[in-house]
Amino acid sequence: MAVSPTADLYLRRGAERRLRGGHLWVYSNEVDSSRTPLGEFAAGDLVVVRDAAGGLLGSAYMEPHSLICGRLYAPGQARPFDRQLIQERLATALAGRERVFPGPWYRLVYGDSDTLPGIVVDRFGDYLVAQCNNVGVERYREELVAALVATLQPEGILLRGDSRQRRDQGLAADCEVVHGAVPAEVELEENGVRFLAPVFEGQKTGWFYDHRMSRARLAAWVRGGSVLDVYSYIGGWGVQAAACGATEVLCLDSSAQALAGVEVNARLNGLQDRVATVHGSAAETLSALRGEGRAFDVVILDPPAFIQRKKDLKKGVAAYRRINELGLKLLRPAGLLVSASCSMHLSRGDLMGAMQQAAVRAGCQLRVVEQGAQGPDHPIHPAIPETEYLKAVFARKL
After folding, report:
1. How far apart are CA 148 and CA 37, in angstroms?
2. pTM, entire model
3. Could you give the C-alpha distances from 208 to 157, 335, 375, in angstroms and in order?
4. Architecture in CATH of 83-182
5. For 187-397, CATH number?
6. How far apart are CA 25 and CA 13, in angstroms?
7. Which is deepest, 77, 109, 164, 294, by most CB within 10 Å?
8. How confident is the model over 345-374, as pLDDT tens digits?
9. Residue 294: which region, alpha, beta or left (left: phi > 0; alpha: psi -120 to 50)?
10. Which CATH fold would you assign to the domain 7-75?
């Protein structure tokens, strides 16, 4: 059912510049509240956004109680947020993914970058895992599901509703199969290596496609060596390192359930003799390994976001410095440190600065030899720097 914009939303004079430059967010302090009071809108209401003179800027859905009170889904157009629009967006996104990736395993929808704000969809072959990450877009889940079914004819669609963004907005943290049937674990292939992802109980959608390109760069560095994969989750880095020829891989994580997934995925690829696991907190376990005299040819650090909010930057940089220092102390001379960050508020320069401080404290030198970023299924919107979040730095220890 088509739902058309029911009202106009007028901005203050001059507030339209960012939207005309391609941005998709309307901030509450940009709205001419005397002309269009935010209190008149409910979450998910569709509006035509206009400048102070009445010029058309696009169509948006509302989140009137948030700082970002409107999200454009149709820049420069007045049109419904319906199945037809979503299918158009899906077709464009799908064409881009199919051009780059040989198989049906990728992030199909990446929110604003695919002009479907608030929506994430990961594809696992015949199965899809979707997230509606704010209260405004939650109203259109039926249109989303219908568009996904029409576009891809999947065997099943799982709607994960347990993201941090949803919790912050007081939305239900549920997990529901909304089409067909979805098994507890779904298979995927990345860089020629097979994995089973726990889509109901795993982190986010069950898998992290974003580091795919960086993980592919491991082959030349790990062949014939020993690898420590810290914050391993279910083995995205570590199992691929073993598949690329590492003779010994140790996966470290604080989740016993995640480490059970490492073991499953190692066996799935016939690599169980080369992949071991250790359960514990990263800092304590790294210190213990050093006390045991352990050393590795490659150390991979891919932690969760240490910086959730901009005000946490200083504390977060210190956390990155500390974990890199511990990693460097376990790295053999001429070994490779892979240091990653998914903290949007941490710049690549800040990450390198934390690595350099760690090297000084560890009594060594570093030279950056390669760098990685999010893959083409996580496209960056050039007008929205927040869509760029992932960094990976490959550095040799001298």
Report:
1. 35
2. 0.94
3. 18, 26, 11
4. 2-Layer Sandwich (3.30)
5. 3.40.50.150
6. 16
7. 109
8. 999 999 999 999 999 999 999 999 999 999
9. beta
10. 2.30.130
